[in-house]
Amino acid sequence: MRGKIGKRAVDALSAPEDGEVILWDNQLAGFGIRARAGGGKTYLVRYRPGGGRRAALRTYTIGKHGSPWTPDQARDEAERVLTLVKRGEDPQAEKMKARAGATIREFGASVLGELRGKKKARTVDEYARLFDRLIYPAIGARKVADVGRPDIARLHASLRATPYQANRVLAVLSKAFSIAERDGIRPAGSNPCRHVEKFKEIERERILSSIELAALGDAIAAYDGSLYAAGAIRILLLTGARRSEILGLKWDWIDFARGEARLPDSKTGTKTLHLPPPALKVLAGLHGSKEILTSLSGTARARPSSTSRNRGGRFASSRRSSCGRLPISRRWRP
């Protein structure tokens, strides 16, 4: 895709659902802006060191669109970088040398920026949480090139009380150090997370007792807030689905006749969620359709109309409802 990179073109540039799209400037060769799903828009320059066609193609990242980079400022920076290339310099190589002296905190921010758009947003958000709460306080001031296996083993061992979280920290750091090796910040094969043994993880299964179910039913029945919040809890109880699967559910994905919801992007990929009759009844009640309620006992094929959709068709009209404040009092049975 080519065109003049200006405010209008940048504002109109939209990211695909997967992968990325790059708008290359038609006036300054090598200058572009990349849009990634969930990752914003980033200005960049591509060039070959020395100007020869046999030289490896390098990508120099200028920065994200917004604060501080505007199209004009990014263009000026691209011209500066390309001027250095014409002089025989390699700006990206110089940047990598500077990064070699970066701390874990500095490098972590770079890693998270790279992963946005490549992984799901909630996955990167969880990585960021692990960096902020556990990794940075322990080794954030250490240089990336100086961290050794004893440092990682010590951090991992300090989290033994929460083995699942400790292993996630190990996995995130392993990914970060692999990127450091790829970028030449650390020697190949020097990942300090290698040979650090993970803790054994024991799967936990917690099933509500009949007394707890009744108490939860009482609370839902007494709750006078969002119908969608109460409905979401009922459907979670009736299906055993993940919270994110129910809160992100769209009417278009629900097939009342087949008694299922087709999830295009769950945590484990495309998934069919089976909906028992009580769950369908809850959904039909939220939709407010007598036709659907009637079809549950017959063979009619009924689907929610587009006028009933909330927030782009999502089932949960109140994702941030305070379900945790439900009073535990009267009985409700599914």
Instruction: Return the average pLDDT rounded to an integer.
Output: 81
How is the main sheet built?
Answer: 5 strands, mixed
Helical content class: 40-55%
Count of runs of 4 or more consecutive helical residues: 12
| Class derived from helix and strand content | alpha+beta
- Terminal CA distance: 54 Å
Cross-sheet strand order for the largest sheet = 1-2-3-4-5
Task: Give your account of this protein's structure.
There is one protein chain. The chain has 334 residues and is an alpha+beta fold. The protein folds into three domains: 2-89, Integrase, DNA-binding domain (Double Stranded RNA Binding Domain), CATH 3.30.160; 104-182, DNA polymerase, domain 1, CATH 1.10.150; 210-325, no CATH class. 42% of the residues lie in helices and 13% in strands. The protein has helices at 7-12, 71-86, 91-99, 104-115, 121-139, 149-158, 163-182, 210-222, 227-239, 243-247, 277-287, 290-295, and strands at residues 2-3, 20-25, 31-36, 40-47, 58-64, 254-255, 260-266, 269-274. The strands form two sheets. A five-stranded mixed sheet has the order 1-2-3-4-5.
